[in-house]
From TrEMBL:
Annotated transmembrane regions: none
Catalytic activities: adenosine + H2O + H(+) = inosine + NH4(+); adenosine + phosphate = alpha-D-ribose 1-phosphate + adenine; S-methyl-5'-thioadenosine + phosphate = 5-(methylsulfanyl)-alpha-D-ribose 1-phosphate + adenine; inosine + phosphate = alpha-D-ribose 1-phosphate + hypoxanthine
Keyword ATP-binding: no
Annotated protein name in UniProt: Purine nucleoside phosphorylase
A GO term, aspect molecular function: S-methyl-5-thioadenosine phosphorylase activity
Keywords of this entry: Hydrolase, Metal-binding, Transferase, Zinc
UniProt xrefs under InterPro entries: Cu_polyphenol_OxRdtase (IPR003730), Cu_polyphenol_OxRdtase_sf (IPR038371), Cytotoxic_necrot_fac-like_cat (IPR011324)
Biological source species: Erythrobacter litoralis (strain HTCC2594)
Keyword 4Fe-4S annotated: no
UniProt record similarity statement: Belongs to the purine nucleoside phosphorylase YfiH/LACC1 family.
Length: 227
């Protein structure tokens, strides 16, 4: 069974970021329903209501979910992109976001926080954890990639070999959460690329010529009686 890494900021809220140590993901909340999306690197957020469900072959196209429904587990998959789990434990609102560079640049994290606020959360009370993500030292990008970002984002790019940069996706995600008003942020600082025994990495698999379909799960939910 895969291990679930947890954040101290989300203590008391069922959650976890899976590794790829073994097959299968532990059950987060016994008997709870799990909700997944068709992730498309967008900024779209879905509000999951009590009783909402969709089958494997008809998932909604979006990259984040929020809910205050009990016994509902939000599940996203990643393999280098940043998985972000969020919670306002006071009112019982949780969220999960898949934040690759496109989604993060497009506003998926700001939209997730805004959707949580619509359900009663307060920005300053929200705690967010950034799970296993490709680190700056492992994430080389070219000049065309750099030009997609604004000048004020220069701090997230370190010069590399000629015509290339090293992009700090976890720091960019953290800054996006801060701009959205999130009060507390925890980066687990786990590089997916450099830990082949623990994490799937799309970029590493591409470089190695290995199969690229492997993914980690990131899960968060509310037990009965919280919402």
């Amino acid at each position: 069974m895969a291990q679930l890494l947890r954040s101290e900021l989300l203590d008391g809220i069922p959650h976890g970021f899976s590794t790829c140590d073994a097959e299968g993901v532990p059950e987060l909340i016994p008997g709870a329903r799990s909700v997944r999306l068709k992730q498309v690197h967008s900024a779209r957020v879905v509000h999951v209501k009590e009783g909402d469900s969709w089958p494997h072959d008809a998932r909604l196209e979006a990259d984040a979910m929020v809910t205050r429904a009990p016994e509902c587990v939000l599940a996203i998959v990643t393999a280098d992109c940043a998985p972000v789990l969020l919670a306002d434990r006071v009112v019982g609102v949780v969220g999960a976001a898949h934040a690759g560079w496109r989604g993060a640049h497009g506003g998926v994290l700001a939209n997730t926080v805004a959707a949580m606020v619509e359900l009663g959360a307060e920005r300053g009370r929200i705690a967010a954890a950034i799970g296993p993500t490709i680190a700056q030292a492992s994430y080389e990008v070219d000049e065309a990639f750099r030009t997609r970002f604004e000048e004020e984002d220069a701090a997230f790019f370190m010069s590399g070999r000629p015509g290339h940069y090293q992009f700090d996706l976890p720091a960019y995600v953290g800054a996006s959460l801060k701009r959205a008003g999130v009060g507390r942020i925890d980066d687990l600082a786990q590089d997916t690329y450099t830990q082949p025994d623990r994490f799937h990495s799309f970029r590493r698999a591409t470089h190695d010529g290995s199969p690229t379909e492997g993914r980690q799960f990131s899960l968060i939910g509310l037990p009965a009686g919280v919402a």
